[in-house]
Amino acid sequence: MGNLPEDEVSAASLHTSMLQDVVPSAVGSDILLYSYHRSFNGFAAKLTNEEAEKLRGKEGVVSVFHSQKKQLHTSRSWDFMGFSKKVRRSVIESDIVVGMLDTEISPESESFNDTGFGPLPTKWKGTCQMSANFTCNKYYRANGDFGPGDFKSPRDLAGHGSHTASTAAGGLVSKASLYGLAKGTARGGVPSARIAVYKICWSDGCYDEDILAAFDDAIADGVDIISLSVGSIFSSEYFEDTIAIGAFHSMKNGVLTSNSAGNSGPDPASITNFSPWSLSVAASTIDRKFVTKVKLGNGEIYEGTSINTFDLKGKMYPFIFGGAAPNTSQDYTSDARFCSPGSLNQTLVKGKIVFCDYESDGEGPIEAGAVGAVFQSGGNKDYVFAYTLPLSNLNLDDGRIVFNYVNTTENPTATIFKTTVEDNQFAPYAVSFSSRGPNPVTADILKPDLTAPGVDILAAWSEATTVTEDEDDTRVVPYNIISGTSMSCPHATGAAAYVKSFHPTWSPAAIKSALMTTAFSMSTENNIEGEFAFGAGHINPAVAAQPGLIYDAGEIDYVKFLCGQGYTPKYIQLITGYNNSCSEETSGTVWDLNYPSFALSASPGKSITRVFHRTVTNVGSAVSTYQAVVRAPPGLIIQVQPSVLSFKSLGQKQSFVVTVGAEVGNSMISGSLTWDDGLHQVRSPIVAFASLME
């Protein structure tokens, strides 16, 4: 996806002409799905493999790739970060427009009540799509195939889009809860900001061609921040990934894209949104957890995890092991212990609580007529799910005891209590499902960039679906509790919009720098992967608007980076519109990209030394002096020249060099560099690690 044509030829006619060369029958047909022409140059079309290959070889074509289906990366959180309702606000917050690319919103939700809002900002160039039941914002569906339950409008069917949008910029709603759980004031980071929704996700997923169309419109419409809690299940090169392509063009137009890191952790290099020009957000816990207790007939009580809104009122029910109730008519004898769908004997299980030797979605016990279920598993218990029946997940130690009880006691009984809320004294730490670094394409750019609350988050929900989105669920709610980097991403989006409201002229890189260098530092005690789990640390939005110094970068800096990464001049020109060839002057090493973090990798067992060049811009006190404060554990040597930076005016730039030497062995070592003037602490992580990447 490249620059728009500079001559009089329209992008749309150019796209049609290119298609006609490849598919002569394309004239007047429905082969062309989208012509991207408002913010960048490209198109989506229905082609055979042979036609795609022919198009790939044509002059002026950057790349041709198959459309892929991407996945959604699915109260107390703002207060937990020290970002209270009374935090200082910018007078222009209501002019900030947050572009949400998601399943979109339920307009009736109190979180989106726009009473008291003035006229639209004059910069806004967007339009609204008319539909039968929702008259604003936009939706995208290139192939025109809608599922039976899909709304052909920006209205939210799944709940995900309402949740993310209200987290980023929803209004204040008091006494919000999920059946009394997490009760409090639900709010977004910038409640006075505007929300522009672009529906890209449907019942069967989120498709590349629709994502690019939404980027094209959002940039041209005039949004200030783009939030995208969507990603692939595997990593791709920067310009084979529609999200990275869209984010590049949004950066070029002064718009920061906030991305979810992904939900494939804790596997290393599982992060899927990692382009250096976007903000990659991991997910971490907040200081509460949900506990669901199980009481046995012998009086013993065990704590499990789930979000159980059902109240059995303490009534004791017959308790049975799934393995003792197999559906022998279907030869499910071996699967019954796991309570797989269809594996249980309904006659034996109906009206009882069933014990299962595996953690699942509870479908098996539900269809067998169970009153409730108790699972045991060795899986991670640092996040929870809601189910369509009373259910609790026990760890293996407690599960073993309960297993013994249900199998050795005559007439065993049990009950499951409604979930309660307890303090999580270890928070924050990166949750197990949050995708980890290192960056799978450019190892020496640290990713994720930072972490934000993404576990057990209460926010707005669509009343067109249920708590679990399951057809057997009858609970319809205005607010729901879910987890995912999909939830952490809009927290970062809201924080970025907050910074933007105070500094409307700042570049995307400047805003990202402010968020990263003011983040709370985090411990490896609960995250052995260190910065590969949480990046620069936990977001601290109240401080981010006054970072002191920023690491700024623009399109030319990323072009230099791409030249240094081996992308051809022709390729870069087509993508970016940059007309000069890659040369010694325009080729930059990855270590010289003006990034707010430092990373260096070596083969296992090797020592390595890298030299980083950085430039910071003074946005704090006009006259100020910053001292370099280095934290370097054994095995890491960090030198900073000069070690003192003196500024005489706002906007003044100062450059410095960081030399890092490391003995990485087979693991990672992390330290930090903090520029401190007594008022601002501008901290950057420094990570050296053993890499298996070639």
Structural class label: alpha/beta
Inertia-based shape? globular
Largest sheet features = 8 strands, mixed
- What integer value in Å does the Rg equal? 27 Å
Tell me the β content.
25-35%
- Arithmetic mean of pLDDT: 89
Number of strands: 34
Distance between the termini: 28 Å
Question: Helix coverage percent of residues?
Answer: 10-25%
Low-confidence stretches: 131-135
As an assembly, this protein is: single chain
Number of helices: 15
Describe the secondary-structure layout.
Layout: H1 11-22, E1 32-36, E2 42-45, H2 49-56, E3 69-72, H3 77-80, E4 97-102, E5 138-139, H4 160-169, E6 173-178, E7 181-186, E8 194-199, E9 201-202, E10 205-207, H5 208-221, E11 225-228, E12 230-231, H6 242-252, E13 256-260, E14 279-284, E15 288-296, E16 301-304, E17 317-321, H7 346-349, E18 353-356, H8 363-367, E19 372-376, E20 391-394, H9 396-408, E21 413-416, E22 420-423, E23 450-453, E24 457-460, E25 479-482, H10 485-502, H11 508-517, H12 531-534, H13 541-544, E26 549-550, H14 555-564, H15 569-576, E27 598-602, E28 607-618, E29 624-631, E30 636-641, E31 644-647, E32 653-663, E33 668-676, E34 681-690
Parallel strand pairs: 4-8, 4-11, 5-8, 11-13, 13-14, 14-23, 17-18, 18-19, 19-20, 27-34
Antiparallel strand pairs: 1-2, 3-10, 3-12, 6-7, 9-10, 15-16, 15-21, 15-22, 17-21, 24-25, 26-28, 28-32, 29-31, 29-33, 30-32, 33-34
Helix pairs in contact: 1-2, 4-10, 5-6, 10-11
